[in-house]
Automatic annotation (TrEMBL):
Residues 4-236 form the ABC transporter domain. The lineage of its organism: Bacteria, Pseudomonadati, Acidobacteriota, Holophagae, Holophagales. This is ABC transporter ATP-binding protein. SUPFAM superfamilies: P-loop containing nucleoside triphosphate hydrolases (SSF52540). Keywords: ATP-binding, Nucleotide-binding, Transport. PROSITE patterns: ABC_TRANSPORTER_2. The keyword Transport applies. GO terms for molecular function: ATP binding. The keyword Hydrolase does not apply.
Amino acid sequence: MAILEIKSVSKFFGGLAANSNVSFAVEEGMIMGLIGPNGAGKTTLFNCITGYYPPSKGEVIFDGRRMNGLQPDKVCKLGMVRTWQKVRPLAKLSVVDNVMVGALARTSSLRTAREVAMEQLKVVRMEHRADFLAGGLPIGERKKLEVARALATQPKLLLLDEVMGGLNPAESEEIIQLILDIKQHGLTQMVIEHDMKAIMRISDRIVVLTSGEKLTEGTPQEVVSNQDVIDAYLGESHA
Ligand SMILES: Nc1ncnc2c1ncn2[C@@H]1O[C@H](COP(=O)(O)OP(=O)(O)OP(=O)(O)O)[C@@H](O)[C@H]1O
């Protein structure tokens, strides 16, 4: 069953079509990759899906419900949460307090929020950092903190925006394993990523955007051998 349906979504900024007539569906339990060159409209689409921008046209249907026009906090309560490419933790709060901010989307009890936050810190293997100031974390741990905060909202669909960006190969590998672990627990994910090897490994299907439009969609193998994708995005090195 599709947990998310994107139906002919367009987003205009003045005369620029950042997304143009984009349609696809994300099935429950899968990892959907979203790739495309810089400026292709990937982040804009995440923003349209999660309520940060209202789509100019088209529909976002999540869990059978039309989401157009709902604010991000409402979208989050309904079970869809995103991470940001540029992670900005609350620097002067501890790691666990940052994750509690996510948990408080579901409960008003600080005790419950703390318990949920500690569970999610275990998932990202950062429980030993719970009392550390978030502002002092290196980039790899900031990225994992961002994932823990999102998980603490107890989503049905997690959208990750370049969670491996700026990480070294060992840190990226840790994130890949984390994404696969999260999938094992049944959570549906949508992932924007520039690292082709990583996106090929983790995705069940991939949507390719160029200049705001959907170029194609398919399994990683189908996408990587598609001549239009090679011409528009991958270049000769992947041919
Ligand atoms: N708030 C905005 N106002 C005006 N133009 C915008 C806005 N947000 C994005 N754009 C433009 O929309 C287009 C798509 O941008 P977007 O950030 O969605 O692409 P992207 O595929 O995520 O790129 P990248 O891989 O570099 O992160 C770009 O031309 C960008 O300049």
